[in-house]
Structures are given as C-alpha cells and as structure tokens.
Specification:
- By secondary structure, the chain is of the alpha+beta class.
- It has a domain at 53-162: Sandwich (Tumour Suppressor Smad4), CATH 2.60.200.
- It has helices at 3-46, 53-62; strands spanning 63-71, 77-83, 87-91, 98-99, 110-115, 118-123, 130-132, 135-136, 141-142, 148-151, 156-162.
- The strands form two sheets. It has a six-stranded antiparallel sheet with strand order 2-1-11-10-7-8.
- A hairpin with a 5-residue loop joins strand 1 (63-71) and strand 2 (77-83).
- Helix 1 runs antiparallel to helix 2 (53-62).
- The longest helix is centred in the N-terminal third of the chain and has 44 residues, at 3-46.
- The N and C termini lie far apart (56 Å).
- 25% of the residues are buried.
Length: 165
C-alpha cells in the first residue's frame, strides 16, 4: 500500500467513527428524553387531583394537551393535563384520572395518551361506543385540536385542546 491509500483508508475510518459516534449520541439522547418524559408522566399521575397551584404549574409545563371535561348540568369544567408519555383513563372506577358516574360508562371505558406531540383516544371495550366528533371510534385514533370525545348515552363530553410549546 502506498501513502495515498493509507491516508484515504484512514480518512474513511475516521469519518465512519464520527458518524457512528454522532448516531449513538443522538439515539442515546432521544432515549434519555423519552425516559425523562415517562418519569415525569409517572410522577404527575401520582399527584393527587387538587386545586394546588404548584401541581397545576408542573402539569401545564409538561403537558402536550389539555382535556376539558364538561358534565351536563354543571357550569364548572374539569381540566386534565395530558403529559407526553402518559396514559389518562376515563371510566366509572374511582382510580381513573377522569371519573364519570354514568351508567352508560364502564369501569375503564377509554384512554387518552400522548407521545411525540401527538395524542390519541382509544376505546377500552365498554358496552357503549366511544365517539369522536359524533363518529364511532374503533381503535386508537389521533386527536386534533377542538375534537370532542363522548360516550353514547352519557351526559358528559371531553374536548381535546392541543398545547403549543
């Protein structure tokens, strides 16, 4: 091998090493970000629902969206923040994030989840249908700003509001 071939081979080796290091760094950084998002979502899920300002500030800071729960006959509306990497459940069971005391809603009826600046609603097998803007939802469905989620025969609605960051 002459000197030119050695230099070219060394340059290719160096370029390959740099690309490999960059790709590895980028993938590790993304994984770390996702892990942090999951940890924050888990911590937010453990925070009891209160009117505490500190809780709301933390929830808002990491939220991808806000779910506005309107119940028929009530002027006040609940706001549930949807952090990235989280899963918010809706149903009659008191362990749900959104509790709806309505006979047409099952114990765990639907779930909302957010990841990578997108949010989805998913029916979880209740006897009555989950609707998105009046259309039946059969599987995970992407939400858009202003979408209204409801359950057939139930006296409530959930409006999805995307939060820009």
């Amino acid at each position: 091998m002459d000197a030119t071939q050695i230099i070219i081979t060394a340059a290719f080796g160096l370029a390959a090493s740099i690309v490999t290091a960059y790709v590895t760094y980028t993938l590790n950084r993304r994984q770390e970000r996702r892990r942090q998002d999951r940890e924050v979502a888990a911590k937010l899920a453990d925070i009891p629902t209160t009117r505490d300002d500190a809780t709301r500030i933390v929830a808002i800071q990491f939220a991808e969206a806000c779910l506005v729960v309107a119940r028929e006959g009530e002027a006040d509306r609940d706001r549930v923040f949807l952090p990235s990497g989280s899963r918010i459940t809706l149903g009659r069971d008191p362990n749900n994030h959104i509790v709806v005391n309505d006979a047409s809603v099952s114990r765990v009826h639907a779930a909302f989840r957010a990841s990578d600046r997108e949010a989805f609603v998913e029916p979880l097998g209740g006897a009555t249908a989950v609707s998105l803007n009046g259309r039946r939802v059969l599987g995970p469905t992407k939400l858009r700003d202003g979408d209204v989620v409801s359950v057939e025969g139930a006296s409530f609605s959930v409006t999805y509001i995307a939060m820009s960051r």
